[in-house]
Design goal:
Structural class: mainly beta
Shape: globular
Strand content: 35-45%
Length: 371
């Protein structure tokens, strides 16, 4: 959810919702109100990145069918605007500019997936620069039409240590997904939320490459199993405050995920074996990956997610002044992991993933040894 730049068009049907007026003396329906330019902003700042990209559009309006308007970039994109990101810092009880600022430049994305809106080309805005997790950032957008400046501010995620603290020993004995009786019922994960973080998505990546009968090797292939999305009870505001988040990994579901994503090796195939491993690492095919979002992003996600009840009317939410959308922060990190001996055995010969020719890189005496 957080790894792709995307635009959530709030108020998508603003142009038609609430604009129907029926006169008691007329049979005509007037479906248009005077044009109102509503700016939509989507931007997430990451202190670990140097390229920062934003989507800045306007809610489209027109007298054509909505699907036709959605496919026309000229009604959604601004032909010209001035936008910048300004850096601030705390000075006592005040917030003052540091003197650093960046002008957003237009850029073209040429590989946008097909969908309701126009594709594959879309205009975005970006700047290149080093930003600090200790500072505050404000985006300001001037539409050059004498309308109020569109603006918003955000703090950044500040990671000060390891996120995953339990289970321990992942780089030594490996992650224990199974024992001699098969996959474990569950594995409890304990994590530390970074400073200013509120929500965390956890993935477990599995990497391998195929070895063919002629001795050649394929490129590394990775699949990502989503463990879940978790929120902290509170947002830590400094490194002295430890806020822990608990998650549950279901090993059976993980092995089933691998089985669904990796095809069985059929008789006569030129695949000799599949070697679980990451490039440049020794017998470490697993990677826990974390995507962390701030408080504003978490609130935005909750409010704009689909309602699960026909009785619930969700409110609109934005932290953008004179516009809609979200300007917030995110960060990411990972922990590489080995697999325990029993976990390897379950992968190569267990009922769920057997037939996929995975080999065992830790048990040298195994009949399925990689060597």
């Amino acid at each position: 959810m957080f790894m792709k730049l995307r635009i959530t068009y709030l108020l998508l049907f603003t142009a038609i919702t609430g604009l129907f007026t029926i006169s008691s003396c007329k049979n005509e329906i007037d479906i248009f109100a005077p044009n109102t330019d509503v700016t939509v902003v989507y931007g997430l700042l990451d202190a670990d990145s140097t390229l920062h990209q934003f989507k800045i559009n306007r809610v489209f309006q027109g007298d054509e069918a909505v699907p036709d308007l959605a496919k026309d970039p000229t009604v959604s994109e601004y032909p010209n605007l001035n936008a910048q990101v300004i850096e601030f810092e705390k000075s006592g009880s005040d917030t003052v500019p540091t003197g650093n600022s960046w002008t957003l430049e237009e850029a073209l994305v040429t590989n946008k997936d097909s969908g309701y809106f126009y594709y594959p080309d879309q205009k975005i805005y970006q700047f290149t620069g080093t930003i600090s997790s200790k500072k505050i950032y404000k985006i300001q957008i001037d539409k050059l039409d004498e309308s109020p400046i569109v603006e918003s501010s955000t703090i950044l995620i500040d990671q000060t240590g390891d996120i995953l603290i339990k289970p321990i020993g992942l780089n030594f004995i490996g992650l224990g997904l199974a024992n001699t009786n098969g996959p474990l019922e569950e594995i409890k994960l304990e994590m530390v939320m970074p400073v200013n973080g509120k929500v965390i998505e956890v993935y477990l990546d599995f990497t391998w490459r195929d070895e063919y009968v002629d001795g050649s090797l394929s490129d590394y292939q990775t699949i990502s199993y989503k463990v879940g999305t978790y929120t902290s009870s509170q947002v830590p505001v400094n490194s002295d405050q430890t806020v822990k988040v608990n998650a549950i990994l279901i090993p059976t579901s993980f092995y089933e995920f691998i089985a669904n994503k990796v095809p069985v090796v059929e008789p006569g195939s030129d695949i000799k074996q599949r070697i679980p491993n990451q490039e440049g690492l020794d017998n470490m095919p697993l990677k826990f990956r974390y995507i962390i979002g701030g408080q504003e992003l978490h609130t935005y996600m909750e409010v704009t997610s689909p309602s699960t009840s026909i009785l619930e009317t969700k409110p609109e939410y934005t932290n953008v002044k004179n516009g809609v959308g979200i300007f917030s922060c995110r960060s990411s990190d990972f922990t590489n992991s080995k697999m325990s001996k029993s976990s390897w055995e379950e992968l190569v010969s267990g009922d769920i993933t057997s037939g996929r020719n995975f080999c065992d890189a830790v048990n040298g005496t195994s009949p399925y040894s990689c060597y």
